[in-house]
């Protein structure tokens, strides 16, 4: 199968990357940005990790379907606001690398939304450093073992981020907030 060329006009419209997320409040984003700065001062966690804004990914999708925001709105129409509690950290072991993340203490409401969106992800989390080497993790471990970060907020909306793949180097430039009922 041939690979799609992003800057060519598609038969069905432009190709977009969508990222559907739950965004923490600004104070949590600032706290997590500081944690990432601390991690980066101990070992290079890479620019992408350092500058990624804290979020909980529900699903990501590459498509030319212009109706994604409407579909997500319809699928989550029954969701009520709920409390998210972050407490502690953990890792995903990818064999050749590790991802360090903050754990969600009460993941059930988020897992329910992921199921509605048909997400393949099963572990809601907030990434701190994705796909770092085991050696880098060993340098971070003392800091992480003393990290006692907790946060809590009421989640009232889903945020759909969109970027045009022919301009993917510009990142996600469009955002659509979908409030819970």
Characteristics of this structure?
single chain; alpha+beta; four-stranded antiparallel beta sheet; 28% helix; 5 helices; 181 residues
Q: How would you describe this structure to a colleague?
A:
- The protein is globular.
- The mean pLDDT is 93.
- It is of the alpha+beta class and 181 residues long.
- It contains 5 helices and 8 strands; from the N terminus they run E-H-H-E-H-E-E-H-E-H-E-E-E.
- A 4-stranded antiparallel sheet has the order 2-1-7-8, with helices on one face. It has a 4-stranded antiparallel sheet with strand order 5-4-3-6.
Q: Secondary-structure blueprint of this entry?
A:
Blueprint: E1 16-22, H1 26-42, H2 47-51, E2 56-63, H3 68-75, E3 82-93, E4 98-104, H4 108-116, E5 125-132, H5 134-145, E6 150-155, E7 157-164, E8 174-179
Antiparallel strand pairs: 1-2, 1-7, 3-4, 3-6, 4-5, 7-8
In brief:
Helix content is 28%, strand content 34%.
Q: Unreliable runs, pLDDT <50, ≥5 residues?
A: none
Main β-sheet description: 4 strands, antiparallel
Ends apart, CA distance between termini: 42 Å
| Average pLDDT, all residues | 93
């Amino acid at each position: 199968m041939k690979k799609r060329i992003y800057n060519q006009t598609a038969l069905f419209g432009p190709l977009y990357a969508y990222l559907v997320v739950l965004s923490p409040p600004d104070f949590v984003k600032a706290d997590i940005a500081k944690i990432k700065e601390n991690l980066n001062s101990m070992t290079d966690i890479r620019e992408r990790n350092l500058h990624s804004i804290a979020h909980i990914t529900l699903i990501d999708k590459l498509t030319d379907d212009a109706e994604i925001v409407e579909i997500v709105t319809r699928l989550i129409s029954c969701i009520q606001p709920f409390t998210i509690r972050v407490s502690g950290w953990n890792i995903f072991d990818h064999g050749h690398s590790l991802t360090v993340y903050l754990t969600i203490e009460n993941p059930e409401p988020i897992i329910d939304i992921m199921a509605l969106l048909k997400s393949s992800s099963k572990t809601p989390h907030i990434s701190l450093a994705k796909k770092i080497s085991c050696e880098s993790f060993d340098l971070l471990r003392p800091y992480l073992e003393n990290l006692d970060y907790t946060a809590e907020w009421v989640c009232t909306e889903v945020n759909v981020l969109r970027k045009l793949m022919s301009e993917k180097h510009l990142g996600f430039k469009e955002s659509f907030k979908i409030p819970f009922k």
